[in-house]
Amino acid sequence: MTTLPANRPLPRAFYERDTVVVARALLGQRLVRVLSGLHLSGLICETEAYGGADDPASHAYRRTPRSVIMFGPPGIAYVYFIYGMYHCLNAVTACDGHPGAVLIRGIFPDEGIGTLREHRSGAADKHLTDGPGKLCQALGITLVLNGVDLTDSSELFITAGEPVAMREIIAAPRVGVRGDEETRTRPWRFVWQHS
DNA sequence: TATACGATCACCT
DNA sequence: GGTGATCGTATAC
Fold first, then answer.
1. Strand C close to A64 by CB, under 7 A
2. Which stretches of A9-131 are DSSP H helices?
């Protein structure tokens, strides 16, 4: 993939690749949420890759009513509800029939920061969107957006952001993953270290 | 039908 | 470093 057009959603081909590759490639891209005509956005700075039957940490380790969306076409938003009060946003990846998704764990706030602050009621700016539940709260992302096509939606999409140098990317084990040593230590979490 | 728990966060010490 | 909040989902009965 060479230069991507700005202000246009990333094409489906962007997501139709190996999930770990997409997780790394999403760093620096712009996550945009349009809420009552307002553009809320930020640059993605933390992601995690989740696979299918080969990944016990993934919702798609088994095919269930909730995880079936991860088995479908790439470029679709997978939103789930967790711990009774938070939502998490993923982008479905890989080829149709091969489950995979990238969890968006953090963004650097950009457009609409006033609204983000309102949604996060009193949180310090550095903690507005520095977690998967926090960014969903800040951007107003709920289960309503589960299944939205990120390549063709006026409410939620991802556009080309800033280039990220390889040396600015840190790979680490995923958060909250249990299971055997091999699963726990897969370096499938990617963090963009601002320089 | 029932129950245990989680890809989290805020607040406490 | 520890814990409570709070409910959808998976799995067991």
1. yes
2. 12-15, 19-25, 113-119
Confidence of residue A7 (pLDDT cuts 50, 70, 90): confident
What's residue A179's pLDDT?
Answer: 86
What is the fold of A12-192?
Answer: 3-methyladenine DNA Glycosylase; Chain A (3.10.300)
- pLDDT confidence band for A5 (50 / 70 / 90): low
* Model pLDDT for residues A141-183, shown as the tens digit of each residue: 999 999 999 999 999 999 999 999 999 999 999 999 988 889 9
Footprint of strand B on the protein (CB under 7 A): A 48, 50, 57-60, 70, 78, 82-86, 88, 90, 101, 103, 120, 123, 127, 131-134, 174-178
